Amino acid sequence: MSDWRTIGKAFHALLKRAREGGELAPAWADFARTAEATRGRPPVEQAILFDCIAELERGTGGRPLVMMEHGCGAGLIAMYLLALGHRGVWGVDVGGDMAAQNRVLREVHGIHETRFSIYDGRHLPLGDGAADLVFSQQVLEHVTDDLIDAYYAEEARILRRGGLAYHQLPHRWGPYDSHSRTWFLHWLPKPVQMAGYRALKRNPDDLARIMHLRAPGAHFRRARAFIGPVRDLTVERLTRLPDMASYEGSARMRRMIHAAVRMPLLGSFAGFALKRLTMLDTVAVRR
Asked: Distances from the Cα of 162 to the Cαs of 87, 237, 267, 284, in angstroms?
């Protein structure tokens, strides 16, 4: 059984080979092997994403799904889906270089469309109603205020009716911030935050540039307004224990949360209390 860290290492080895102009077949075979080891049992980090895919596949009559990773970074998740046979994958981000990813698509899979691209944060490269699923994991907290509405509006535009938008996002009321590696500091007024980051030898300018944490309500309001009804699956995620070797927060705290939400009778109360203090997992259904 491959874990998410093993899959990530194989993926980055594949990208390195693609960027250097090397032979792709052996590196793809290694990556595909790690992905295939998870078939039917995806890493916990991707479990809800695969639940969304299964839900959509039940209603397509066998038609391949079109899926957009909205804020894909290097494209690991989208390429992982491709390795498991989902050919209708796309990925966009606002920075970087996607030449290596598109080379893998061309030379390994015979896909000559530019499926991985850099975009302006406002206009996704798919037509109206073209996608079944759009998703992001730990991306929305990096979207600036001038682009946040466009982020949701474009997802609504490209999703077909009944399509799903799955988002996993840290938010303002989560006590731990993995980017600054601090507890509670982001709860404080901005000047106090910046002073605290400087005192802890973090780079406050970089953090102010990349971090735009919002309250959960800001996400729910936009998802409902632009896309449609929203299901909160945060507690469902908390009942599944991730691979602690690659977990960025406190492993002890995460195990305690996992145990609390699984307690007989009291688990539902624990989940209700905890779900606004941890990273959100939501699925919005396109009207």
From this structure: 20, 23, 31, 9
Per-residue tokens: 273: 């209390």
Tell me the backbone φ, ψ of residue 93, rounded to 5 degrees: -150, 175
User: How many Å apart are CA 73 and CA 225, to the nearest integer?
Assistant: 27
**Number of alpha carbons in the 13 Å side-chain half-sphere of residue 204:** 14
pLDDT for 40-88, tens place per residue? 999 998 999 999 999 999 988 889 999 999 999 999 999 999 999 999 9
pLDDT in tens, 216-228: 999 999 999 999 9
Domains and CATH numbers, the chain: 42-285 (3.40.50.150)
**Residues 14 and 23: beta-carbon distance below 8 Å:** no
Residue from 226, 222, 93, 71 nearest 153 by CA: 226
DSSP state of 62: T
